[in-house]
Amino acid sequence: MNLTSLVAILFGLLFGALALLLSPAKAFLAVIGLAGAVTILRFPFWGLLLFAGMATFMPYSTVNLGIRTTVSEAILALTWGAVVWHRFLSRLPDGPAFARRPTDQMLLWLMLFSVFPFIVGQVITHAESSGVANWLRWLLNLSGVFLAAQLLVDHKQRESLVVALLLGTLAMLVLSIGVFVYTRSGAGIAPILGLFNYANFETLKFGLQAMSPRMGSPWTHPNAIGGIMALLLPLAFCYGMTEQGWKRALGLGVACLGAAALLLASSRGAMVSLALVLLWLASRRVPYTGRLLMIGAALTVALVIAYPPLQERLATIFSSDNASTEVRFDEYRMFPQAVAAYPLGIGFKVDPPVPGTHLLGISNLWLNYIYKIGIVGMLLFVAVTVRWWREARPESGPIRLTKDNALWLGTTAGILSALVSGLFDHYFSFAVVMVALFWLMVGINVLEARRLFPARLPQVKRVDVAEPLLDGVPH
User: Which of 39, 43, 387, 411 could form a disulfide with 445 if both were Cys (CB 3.0 to 4.6 A apart)?
Assistant: First the structure.
């Protein structure tokens, strides 16, 4: 009996046991999950595509694998397992030399440094949650940069990943906007999230009901979907403008629906960050950006006129009397007390604020790094972003948007927009899945930048070895 027949028999017995022990629905899902896991182990790149689609469509759908984790993170971990296995079998092509990847190197230093605040947090904070699990999950989410370097070795593969990201985003937007238009409540999506096994469902449902005038989504919080739109909309626009056929429709469809979702979710930080990045692109004379700003303004006016609740929301959204604004002022006012209480950071057991204290959290990307892993950790994150900008920055002068540079320009603008939104929210620091998508975008971006600007790569030092002499003549 050959190995293929043995594997087929074993899987047949396993599927039969699942059918006997589980309900039909659970057995069907288990079979689908096992088939997917085997497929990913055979084809790691498919795992990365599946992660991109799942992470943008239903990011916080969970599965219990001994410990409860999101399906997105489980797929990401399984993809890494497949990469390690294929590396062991020498089935993956060699990527660029690690010594020539400055962004990756600095990110690795950040990950290594996190060991110190992790240990400190285990000692000084007291909570029931597992600091070990939270730390490992954060490292897994950061690893998208390295996974991209392993699997996205050519432009075609990067384009396939972008298509997967946009397809998942399109499905999420159609679902979210459709449910909100039908129910006229942000809590209308709660039953669907329960069907996808979201964790802490009762608390989540209560939170959605409290923010019912704003659109609900699989990202659970209106500001979270705003952050994801800030990250992905520039990529969708650049990709759609340079493609033809269904790819053009996909990119521009995500851009238009994403803009509508921003207004319905009323995320101030995402609106401001996208507007600033669009102005920067317009100043660099990127085609269509000026017209896009005018069209966006016109559509905003039309949507506000057609939807009265949005008028009420926008009337107070930038007011100093807005409750969210007041909370943010309180967070900044009390932040020095948090730093004084935890100068080395609180680690990974809990997210700010620490339970049992009078302190508040902080809605700022960089300050949240200080809160979690200390000032040194935040400086290392800044060093990573500086290294990234040195690799990915555009050349001086006008920028031409072409099919060849659309992925680079779209991801560059998206990352900049996400960083600007970090002035208002903290999601791209330690929020699982969102962090993974952010660093995966960085991975795509630096790979495209290295292809377009090879002269920026640090040169590997060559050691010239003298040729042996034969009768005084080089031989």
Answer: 411
Neighbours of 11 (CB within 10 A): 14
384 Cβ neighbours under 8 A, 6+ residues apart? 103, 106, 107, 110
In the chain, how many domains are there? Answer: 1
Higher pLDDT, 307 or 177: 177
Domain hosting residue 391, numbered range = 97-453
Look at the block and give the residue holding tokens 């500086």: 386
**Cis peptide bond upstream of 353, omega within 30:** yes
Half-sphere exposure at residue 122, Cβ-oriented, CA atoms within 13 angstroms: 11
**Which pair of tokens denotes residue 372?**
């979690």
Q: Residue 326 falls within a domain, yes or no?
A: yes
The model's pTM: 0.89
CB atoms within 10 A of CB 458: 12
Q: With respect to residue 114, please indicate whether it lies within any of the assigned structural domains.
A: yes
- Residue at 16 is within a domain: no
Q: What is the DSSP string of 123-187?
A: HH---SS-HHHHHHHHHHHHTHHHHHHHH--SHHHHHHHHHHHHHHHHHHHHHHHHHHHHHSSGG
Q: Per-residue pLDDT tens for 60-112? A: 999 876 678 899 999 999 999 999 988 888 777 766 555 568 899 999 999 99
